[in-house]
Amino acid sequence: MIKNASSSSPFGRGLERGKISPLFNSPSQREGEGFLLFQLCKENSTETISLQLLKEIIKSSGINPILKNHFLNELKVVENQIKKGKNKNAAKILEILEKQIEIFSDKKMFNKLRIDKDEAESLIKIIETIRLNLTK
Predict the structure, then answer these.
(1) How high is the pLDDT of residue 51?
(2) What does the pLDDT look like over 64-119, one tens digit per residue?
(3) pLDDT cut 70: percent of the chain above it
(4) Concatenated DSSP letters of 78-90
(5) CA separation (Å) from 39 to 22, 131, 134?
(6) Does residue 81 contact residue 87 with C-beta atoms inside 8 Å?
(7) Which residues, at least 6 apart from 58, have a Cβ–Cβ distance to it below 8 Å?
(8) What is the per-residue pLDDT for 119?
(9) Torsion of CA 112, 118, 124, 125, to 10 degrees
(10) Is 30 within the bounds of a domain?
C-alpha cells in the first residue's frame, strides 16, 4: 500500500501524470477500501488499461448503482472506440462523462443520486487526463 502521496498535483489528490499514486485517500473513503493505482501513458493499449483502472475505481466507489452502471457502460463504449482507432469519438464521450459527473455532484441533486464532491473531482481529473492524452 502506498501511503505518502503528493497533494500538490494539478491532477488532484496525489495524481501526477506518469506516476503511480493512491486515489480516494480522503476522510470520505470507506473503511476497508484499499488504494487503487493509476498510471497513464499515451499508447492506446495503456489507455485501455487506464480505462480498466477507472472502471475499477467506479465499481468500488459509493456512487448510486444506477449511475455506476451508466458510467461503466459509457467507459465500455469509449474502450471500443479506442480499439477501433477513433480517439476523437472516445475523447468526446469522455468529455460528456465528465459533465455528467459534474452535474451529479451538484448540491442541488437529489441525495440518492448525488456523487460526493471530492470523489467527483478525482474522477473528473482522471477522465480529463485520459481524454487529453487521446487527443494528442
Answers:
(1) 86
(2) 999 999 999 999 999 999 999 999 999 999 999 999 999 999 988 888 889 999 99
(3) 64
(4) HHHHHHTT-HHHH
(5) 10, 14, 14
(6) yes
(7) 68, 71, 72, 75, 123
(8) 93
(9) -170
(10) no
In a domain, 94, yes or no: yes
Q: Is the pTM of the predicted complex or chain greater than 0.70?
A: no
Identity (one letter) of the amino acid at 109? M
The pLDDT value given to residue 136: 78
Q: What CA–CA distance (Å, rounded) separates 118 from 135? A: 26
Between CA 36 and CA 43 the distance in angstroms is: 21
CA distances from 110 to 5, 30, 100, 103, 114 (A): 33, 21, 14, 11, 6
Q: Is residue 1 part of a domain?
A: no
116 domain-assigned: yes
Other CB atoms within 10 A of residue 27 CB: 5
Nearest-CA neighbor of 114 among 123, 125, 106, 122?
106
Query: What is the number of domains present in the chain?
Result: 1
40-50 tens-digit pLDDT: 334 445 565 68
What is the residue range of 61's domain? Answer: 44-134
